[in-house]
Amino acid sequence: MYDTHCHLNDKKYENNLSQIITNYEQNGIEKVICVGFDFESSVLAQKIAKENSSVYFSVGIHPENVADYDEQKLIALLDSDDKKMVALGEIGLDYHYTQDNKEKQKEVFVKQIKLAKKYKLPIIVHCRDAYGDCLEILKENAPYQYGGVMHCFGGSTEWAKEVVKLNFKISFAGSVTFNNAKNLQDVAKALDIQYMLVETDSPYLCPKRGIQNEPKYVQDVAIFIAKLKGFDSEQFINIVDKNALNLFQKLKN
Ligand code: NI
Asked: What distance in angstroms lies between residue 124's CA and the mean position of ligand 1's atoms?
């Protein structure tokens, strides 16, 4: 199966990256998407993908890093036209720690949505404590011919049902398995499986609490949701993998 969102480019993996990759490959994870969150991590994601056949990548500037947004540098990366560059992201809005740069966050989000369209890429959207503004921007900038995904979803069922109409998938991370995640589990139960993806967002949000997350644990997320929805886990994994291939076309490369 696939891990559609991880950060092999995170500093936490600096010293044991090849071990982490071996771990997931030995656990039957065929492909992963290493997601950029600022310029340097996007460059690194591309490098890791070049060196490892199972790694694909995306480039983008996360809302926490918008102060350094340099469109020309991002365009240079996009222009590399790499066949393993599956998406633009992660981009979006995050008002959790910072609310004094909302306008800048929105501006950079919209600019990157436009770039994704120009480069015919789906978008990977990060949203935290900003669901109202996020939906407004997504609606204003529709349609999304190449689709998108709400990664590590933390919103409501109503919100999810609105955004899937815009050609978006909803991706669940290890957070759905937590004891206090009743609301999120309700979203996973209510949502049609055709709209679902799974991911680890590793090294964050381990489904096994207290240890560092790795892509190899993506199966735990899938098995948990399959059980929740009354699906056979193998069948569930087949469907979410197909969903991932439909959205991230270059994963077929
Ligand atoms: Ni992430």
From this structure: 9
Place of tokens 């997320």: 221
- Where do the domains of the chain lie? 2-252
Give residues whose Cβ lies within 5 Å of ion ligand 1. 201
**CA–CA distance, 167 with 145 (Å, rounded to integer):** 8
Q: How far apart are the first and last CA of the chain?
A: 15
How far, in Å, is the centroid of ligand 1 from the Cα of 90?
7
CATH classification code of 2-252? 3.20.20.140
Q: Measure 186 CA to ligand 1 centroid, in angstroms.
A: 22
Residue partners of 20: CB distance under 8 A and separation at least 6: 8, 13, 214, 215, 216
The predicted model scores a pTM of 0.97
- CA 10 – ligand 1 centroid, Å: 10
Tell me how many degrees the CA angle 156-130-61 measures, rounded to the nearest 5.
Answer: 120
Q: What is the pLDDT of residues 221-251, one digit of tens each?
A: 999 999 999 999 999 999 999 999 999 999 9
